[in-house]
Structures are given as C-alpha cells and as structure tokens.
Amino acid sequence: MDTVSGTAWRPAARVAGMGTSIFTEMTELARATGAINLGQGVPELASPPALLRDVADAVLAGANQYPPAAGLLALREAVAAHQERCYGLAYDPAAEVLVTTGATEALAAAVLALCDPGDEIIAFDPCYDAYAADARLAGATLVGVPLAVDGEGFLLDGDALRAAVTPRTRALILNTPHNPTGKVFTPAELAAVAALCQEHDLTVITDEVYEHLVYTDRPHLPIAALPGMRERTVTVSSAGKTFNTTGWKVGWVSGPAPLVAAVNAAKQFLTYASGTPYQGALARALGSVEEWAAGLRAELRANRDLLTEGLRAAGLRPFRADAGYFVQADVRPAGYRDGVAFCRELPGRVGVVAIPTSAFQLAEGPRWLVRFSFCKRPAVLEDAVARLRRSAD
Ligand SMILES: *Cc1c(COP(=O)(O)O)cnc(C)c1O
C-alpha cells in the first residue's frame, strides 16, 4: 500500500494494487544478472528506412504542433485504404477512422466509451494485461473465458464462451493474432464469436496489432469482415508492431461512425492528439505495408523456429506460435510445476529471462506455462538458445 507519511493520502480505488508487476520484477532481474531478456516484447528489429527519414524530415520541416484530434486526414485515409485493400472493409476516413496514441489509448478510450460501470466485458484468458485495467478504469468487470490448451496450441471453448454471457454483458474484447499465446483465431472460431455477439447484441472491440505478423498461409481475418459484424465492431490496430516503432505510440480505430464518435469523445480528453510527424510518415508507409510486412514476417518466422527448437533442446515443451512475438512453453518436462518459480530461477541458472504466463491470466489457469519472446536480433536469440541448450546438458 502506498502512503505518504503525515498525510491521509491513498491511491484511488481504481488504481490501487495496479503497481509493480512481474514484468518489472523480471526486467530488473535481467538487469541485475545480465541475462538476455526474452520477457518483454520490445522489438529489436529494423524499421523501414524511408519511414525513419520521413519522420526526421517532417520534424525538421516543422510538423510539430497538434494534429486534428481525430488524426491527420492523410493517415485516416491510409488506414481506410488499408482496411479496404487487405480485408475488403470500407470505412469513411472522415467519420469512421480515428488516430490514437497507440493501440493502448485506443483500447482504453473504446472501453471507456462503450461500457458503463457495472457492465461485464468478455475476454479470452490469458490476455493482454491492459484489458482488465481498462475495464476497471471504466468501472466494468472483465470476465475471462479460458482458452483450452490442447497438445500443441490454444483453442476457443465455445461452451465456456456461451456460459460467460450474463444480462450484464455489454462487450467482448477479441485479440487475434493473440498475445500472449501466438494463437490465430480460425474462421470457424471467429464465426462462433460473431454468432454469439449478434445473439446477445454485444459490441466487439478487436485488438489486431499483430495483423501483419501471421506465419501460416492463412492471412489475418478481421472479425469485422464477417457477415453482420461491421456494425458492432471497433477494430484497433497500431504502427508499433508492424513497423517496429513501439516508441512512437501511433495507433488507430476503425468502425461505424457512431461508435467511432463515442471513442473519440473519450479519446479527446485522454490525449487530445499526438504524434504529428509520425502520422504523416506512417500514412505513406501504410500505403505499401504488404511488401514491408512480407520481409518482417520472414525474419520473425525464422526467429520463431530458432527459439522453438532451442526451447525443445532445453527440455521444455514449446507450443505452436502461428503469429506475433511469443512462444509459449510447458516447463513441466524440465521438472518445474510453477512458471513463476521457473522464471525466477532462469536468469541465474541459464542467463535468460522469460515471463510466467500466469501474469496474463484473469483466473486460475495452467501454472506451468511460460512466455518467451522472439522479436530480437538473430544474434541475441542464438545466444539465448545456446544458453538454453547448455542448461539441459
Ligand atoms: C503491444 C500491444 C498493444 C499496445 O500497442 P501500442 O500501439 O504500443 O499501444 C496492444 N495490444 C496487444 C495485444 C499488444 O501486444
């Protein structure tokens, strides 16, 4: 509990207990031990050189003041063109696209705009840690639906999903491709989610920041593209993961005009607007993202294979990662039952840092899952894999 001596100060209930997390603990362990940090998903890969030059030029040319609250029209047009070109989804850039301060702000603004205190929001468990925090800031409750763990991947449990709906359920947060599991929801799973949302009139907030990082032959399928879903779906994405520019914090929302207007109503009082020089440059980069993303996928796929093999050689049981930055591994074959204990020992024992998947679990789930990230330079991953292999000798 944080206090200030001599005062009656206390944190507001909505943030009490949100303090330091296992992420902070593991990052500090990495620093203290000199271990290789495969915990956090901070990419070490390159960005498109033309994009970097365009940002520098824009700063020097004086694009340094507030953009319009909804974002530069050029970027809103580029997002609309991207949704149309990649997914056949038509949005009006003037009324149905909103630029945000990263996907993080888009998610917070969407939850604040679309949910009231007392509402329930469904999310698949484990999930990205912002969802529970956003629900709490809105006075709503995040209700987890556990993903089933099969031999090598994670599956939607349709019965558990249906059982989670109550009269208070207002919205569903979907995340595909999924962090922390690397799961891509299949067309059949998306259809099941879509049918349930239509049956119960739920709004969908879908987090698609890994849309371009799918390593299978089946490209990303946004739930908004399913019949009857466009009108109830707010789609969130971001430049961070697609262009390795997580520090720029430029994201966007697309959806039907009334929903986007509501999100904008919240967003304008969170940040108003941000990132003018980035927005113009990203509008250009998004225009040819397919070519860029193909190269990035090839790099990340090779990294995934390297890490997966290394985890296996270290005596762990890695799961299939079809997308994103992360591989999940079962630590029980290495003699551990608890991912937290495994992760606390790993830096000293092996010289590698990972994150226990329980940090992403809303309810008690498998304790033996650990998340490793592979969005690193190949040399760093090779070093990590060599350390993991040695640990099994
Ligand atoms: C990284 C990440 C975000 C945050 O995106 P920003 O654009 O950096 O705010 C949101 N959702 C998921 C699933 C992520 O992995």
Describe it.
- It contains 13 helices and 15 strands.
- The model has no long low-confidence stretch (mean pLDDT 95).
- It is 41% helix and 15% strand.
- Helix 1 (22-33) packs parallel to helix 12 (339-349).
- The chain has a seven-stranded mixed sheet with strand order 2-10-9-8-7-3-4, with helices on both faces. A four-stranded antiparallel sheet has the order 11-12-15-14.
- By secondary structure, the chain is an alpha/beta fold.
- A hairpin with a 4-residue loop joins strand 5 and strand 6.
- It has helices spanning 22-33, 49-60, 73-87, 102-114, 130-137, 158-164, 187-199, 239-243, 257-270, 276-287, 289-313, 339-349, 378-392; strands at residues 36-37, 97-100, 120-125, 141-146, 148-149, 154-155, 169-175, 203-207, 233-238, 251-254, 317-318, 326-330, 352-353, 355-356, 369-373.
- The longest helix has 25 residues, at 289-313.
- Bound molecules: pyridoxal-5'-phosphate (PLP).
